[in-house]
């Protein structure tokens, strides 16, 4: 029997204070460039889409502008489709899948839908390949009133004028092996609780809203992604990451009570994608393509069932 080594920061059983957060932050180092990877791509898209700077994250000595892209010929008579990526900055295909969709497919929806697209919500986390922001807060548990996470608060301000007009919101994520080796152990240490090991599913899956499920919508997305990469099977307990599988590749969360990004609008159709980039059966290109396929299928379904 092996025993999990204590997380290297803090005292087991005692939640972190400011000193532990500072110690954790000192261990995080820039590994890639938001300016090169994301802002450069957005600049290249500015001739085709309206670019909106909707916030700025000041994490001394760094400062990160936050950008959204909008359909150039916005028409209030058309439904709004919201695409978000990089809420967890380390989830690479969420960012690059969103950028790839914008570059290759967003123009296909001109005159059919208004697109509001935010490819990288958490640039500090993107650069440091981390789930949290510098305050050791998870932006994807912080979408609620008076959010302490700047990333979440600024995105909610951007979306507020459209909140009740969005028809579809798809939020692009990944589940990685580091969820078990780093992020969940860090979370347990931060909160002063025991770490309980879990199982990482091998494949793509979706998270529906348990309070307003849309099974046909979820299944349409799964069917489209299955042409690109494999769908995660249920584990021996009929679950994926501890939640019952309600349909092939689909689980449900209470989005609003958990403060998840997919709860920020009243959209009829909403989903969170989860790609598995560490699978021996998937390449980075497939992961990006899976995100793109999911976005296209989600928009197509919402348009086809707009009057449902």
Automatic annotation (TrEMBL):
Q: Name one GO biological process term.
A: proteolysis
Claim: Cell membrane is one of the keywords in the record: no
What Pfam families does the database record attribute to this sequence?
Answer: AstE_AspA_cat
Under the heading InterPro entries, the entry gives: AstE_AspA_cat, Peptidase_M14
Which CDD domains did the record assign?
M14_REP34-like
List the cofactors: Zn(2+)
Q: Which residues form a coiled coil?
A: none
GO-annotated molecular function: hydrolase activity, acting on ester bonds; metallocarboxypeptidase activity; zinc ion binding
User: Could you tell me which residue ranges the Peptidase M14 domain spans?
Assistant: 30-302
Active-site residues per Swiss-Prot or TrEMBL entry: 274
Give the keywords, sorted.
Hydrolase, Metal-binding, Zinc
Q: Which family does it belong to?
A: Belongs to the peptidase M14 family.
Q: What name is this protein filed under?
A: Succinylglutamate desuccinylase / Aspartoacylase family protein
């Amino acid at each position: 029997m092996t025993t999990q080594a204590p997380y290297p920061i803090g005292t087991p059983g005692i939640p972190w204070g400011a000193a532990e957060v500072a110690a954790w932050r000192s261990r995080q180092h820039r590994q890639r460039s938001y300016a090169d990877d994301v802002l450069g791509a957005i600049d290249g898209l500015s001739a085709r889409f309206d670019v909106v700077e909707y916030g700025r994250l000041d994490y001394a000595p760094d400062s990160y502008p936050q950008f959204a892209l909008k359909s150039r010929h916005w028409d209030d008579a058309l439904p709004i489709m919201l695409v978000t990526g990089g809420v967890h900055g380390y989830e690479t295909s969420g960012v690059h899948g969103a950028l790839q969709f914008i570059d290759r497919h967003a123009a296909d929806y001109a005159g059919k839908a208004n697109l509001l697209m935010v490819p990288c919500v958490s640039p500090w986390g993107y650069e440091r390949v981390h789930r949290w922001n510098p305050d050791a807060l998870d932006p994807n548990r912080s979408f609620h009133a008076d959010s302490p996470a700047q990333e979440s608060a600024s995105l909610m301000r951007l979306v507020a004028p459209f909140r009740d007009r969005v028809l579809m919101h798809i939020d692009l994520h990944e589940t990685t092996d580091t969820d078990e080796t780093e992020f969940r152990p860090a979370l347990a240490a931060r909160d002063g609780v025991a770490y309980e090991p879990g199982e990482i599913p091998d494949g793509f899956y979706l998270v529906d809203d348990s309070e307003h499920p849309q099974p046909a919508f979820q299944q349409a997305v799964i069917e489209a992604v299955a042409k690109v990469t494999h769908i995660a099977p249920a584990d021996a307990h009929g679950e994926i990451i501890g939640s019952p599988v309600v349909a092939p590749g689909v689980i449900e969360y209470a989005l609003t009570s958990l403060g998840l990004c997919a709860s920020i609008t009243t959209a009829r159709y909403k989903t969170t994608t989860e790609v598995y980039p560490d699978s021996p059966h998937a390449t980075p290109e497939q992961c990006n393509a899976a995100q793109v396929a999911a976005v296209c299928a989600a928009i197509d379904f919402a348009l086809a069932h707009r009057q449902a």
